[in-house]
Amino acid sequence: MASPLRLRVLGSGAGGGLPQWNCGCPPCRAARAGDPRVPCRTQSSLAVSADGGVRWVLLNASPDVRVQLASWPAAAPGPGKLRASPIAATVLTNADLDHCLGLLVLREGGAPHLYGTAPVFEAIEVGLGVLTALGAYGPTKSTVLPTDGAELSICDRDGVDTGVRIEAFSVASKVPPYAAARGLGRGRGELEGDTVGLLVKSAAGGRVLAYVPGVRDLDERLAGYLARAGVLFIDGTFFTNDEMTALGLTTRDARTMGHAPLSGSAGIVEFLGRFPAAERWLVHINNTNPIHFSDGAERAWVESRGVRVSYDGLELEL
Ligand SMILES: [Zn+2]
Hints:
This protein is of the alpha/beta class. The protein has helices spanning 26-32, 65-70, 97-100, 102-105, 118-128, 130-135, 177-180, 220-226, 243-246, 268-272, 297-304; strands spanning 6-11, 45-49, 56-59, 87-91, 113-116, 142-144, 152-155, 161-170, 196-202, 209-212, 231-235, 279-283, 307-309, 315-317. It has a single domain (6-317), classed as 4-Layer Sandwich (Metallo-beta-lactamase, Chain A). The chain is globular. Zinc ion is lined by residues 20, 23, 25, 27-28, 287-288. The site of zinc ion has 7 residues, from helix 1.
């Protein structure tokens, strides 16, 4: 049954999606108006399968997961099944609301097997009570993701191996505001498991996926992990460091919000130039980002550097 990894982009947007409910920025206005240059984006999540699409593992669970699964025939219960789902497990990369609120959406009939680092479990429980709330709807099997280089076999909630193998590695980013408000994240340098990237592969072999939807520091440690992957799905949140501040939307710049910008000599696109042999895609794209415009100069610049902009519904076989 084991086969090379299959991947589907469930949501390519960042928190708020595109358009965001209260936002009047140029991409949000265009998406809301149905401008074909700016397709709508749901919030940040991928699905991967290592058995040809029989069972799927979610990489983050966005608050849009209900519509992401409802609009995807492969996610339906099998024929003749009254209550069932091919969604076997969920792996969290951090505790951001756009990555974890979908856990509450998937509560009926027992949640998928949940994987996250100890600090991420602490954040979603102390800050939001997610695990306690889920437990009231049925047993939730959870497993702590190690960040010490160990490779983990991802199993469904009955303990059956899905064939998906994951190695998590800490990256420097930012804990979400709700967790920071509870005193979490500080004193750890925001490094030890608050945010992770994932190396994902199939037990059957094939190319390795690197999934890093949030990262601030583009350091040699990160480069070492990305060098092991053939397909990269990387943080495309902001084009410039002052994108949100220049619009007057916040006083916090991109790096303060835990994301390296795409542009500039210290930006993500320049950094991805170090991996020319890899297939390079952007995910977790904030609604303010000008790369949403398919005919824009920013999109042309990104693509001229060999980096592609992913989209909801994109499917790949690794
Ligand atoms: Zn917007």
